[in-house]
Amino acid sequence: MNVVFYLLAALTIAGGLAAMLLKHLIHAALAVTVAFAGLALLFLQLDAQFAGFAQILVYIGAVAILIVFAILLTHGAELPRGGVFSGTWFVGLAIAAGVFAVLGWAVLQSVHALPQQTAAPAVTVHDIGNALVGSYVLPLEIVALLLTAATIGAVIVAMHEKAGQK
Amino acid sequence: MSATSFFSRLDQIFVLLRNWLVGFLPPTMRPAAGVVLAVMAIVCVFPGLFALTTVFERKGLGRMQNRLGPNRVGPFGFFQPVADGIKSLTKEDIVPISADGLVHFLAPLVLVVTVFMGFAVLPMGRNMVLVDMDAGVLFFFAMGAATEISVFMAGWSSRNKYSLLGAMRAIAQMISYEVVLLLSTVSVVMIAGSLSLPKIIDAQNQYSWGLPHWYIFTPWGLGAFIMYAIAATAETNRSPFDLPEGESELVAGYHTEYSGFKFALFFLGEYLAMFSISGMGTTLFLGGWSAPLAALNWIPSWIWFFGKVMMSIFVFIWMRGTLPRLRQDQLMNFAWKFVLPFTLLNLLVTALWRFLGEGWQRWVLCTLILAAAYVLMGRAGLYRKHIGPRSYRYAE
Prior knowledge:
The complex is a heterodimer of chains A (166) and B (396).
Chain A: H1 3-21, H2 25-45, H3 49-73, H4 89-113, H5 125-133, H6 137-165
Chain B: H1 3-11, H2 13-22, H3 30-64, H4 80-90, H5 101-118, H6 136-157, H7 161-192, H8 197-204, E1 207-208, E2 211-212, H9 219-235, H10 247-250, H11 260-285, H12 301-322, H13 328-356, H14 360-385
Antiparallel strand pairs in B: 1-2
Helix pairs in contact in B: 3-11, 3-12, 4-11, 5-6, 5-11, 6-7, 7-9, 7-13, 9-11, 9-13, 11-12, 13-14
């Protein structure tokens, strides 16, 4: 725990809070991007190069763009009349707190489950690649299949509307 | 001092210069000072190269279009970039009244910073890389992907329909061609077995019969290089893929509402992106800083790197002077129906090449597959277009 960690954590949390509290949807989307960047930097601070760069490539390069495109294409950028908070915000808060509690509990339990390690393990990108196409090849293929199915599904949904217009 | 040691010192002149300068500091500060010096070198050299390239481009385009180009400022117009720089510094910075001030201000900064970050992993000569990262290729493309958000910020915050349309076009184009860019890089990573750029160069820096082992001289490498070049042209919004700033349709695309120095920053970002993506292509396919013949190895490595990058820039300018702009639907069809399938096939051919082992069989087989696929896809594409004799209603 050092100064860099606290700075990055503050940046991430500020980004997340701004995403929640800002009135304008596009501003909120850009604030989420800041939070994503903070998370990527936290990964890098932990020497997890692959996770950090994948976070930037996927979340800032694709997910953030997807969010702003979705906002622009659905005309949702105007401020809703009843304010940005939905009426059932406390339910969302309860679910978020529950998920956070379960995750926190799992992380704290893993300290006992794993043997104490004195030195940080040095994992290179090479090892991650070998693991992905070696022992984890079946989950990788299943994820690939799922994503392909999702893409085809999205295309079919989009095509159906176009055919109906004619 | 013998000739060989003189040339090997000339090869390392920048490294030696940095070590000499850092030597004046106490030992605890030396690593940090070395990094600062290297960053300063990158931040000075590439904008300088940008200034040179603008005058080179304008004079080259002028020659292609049978005119003189800039010829008033200094000898042969070579001080034109100085005049342009002073002009953009002294011009009024106009921000539209309905623009989103903060986002409008941040967009050019985000663009230039992310583009500069990409240079951190490019090896510009023997031992001349700022950070030898284990995942250098990934870092480079992660930074490239982050520029998209700055394009969106610029287009959206200007509150101008041309800006927004230009930004939407630019992002759609960048996302489509980024897939190809990454997939064509994967071929090289598969053969080199590493995501680190210095290791990729080491794999290519070998010679048999005096000829280099560059990846462009293999069937899969040539295919991947051509796809990479197409995708790189589209990523940097250069002609014939310059629809996002097509001046006849969109004024100037996403930077319509920028003036003065902010506009200059966008201009700088665009050219720096060209340099960095050319540097990446050089590193991946053209052997980086290695010499094209074993006999030419005495010439300093950084001359080869910058020479290859400037050659690529010349090709960019040449294409701009030659090819007409595509239409948006042609652009998308080209990306998803020709370039992407061909790149995927090239990936399979690369795997085949990897597992066939040494020998002449793999050369014949891989060349045949790629050539057949290219011809068949071209024929199929033309067949569907029903191209025949044209008839002009009013001209006959």
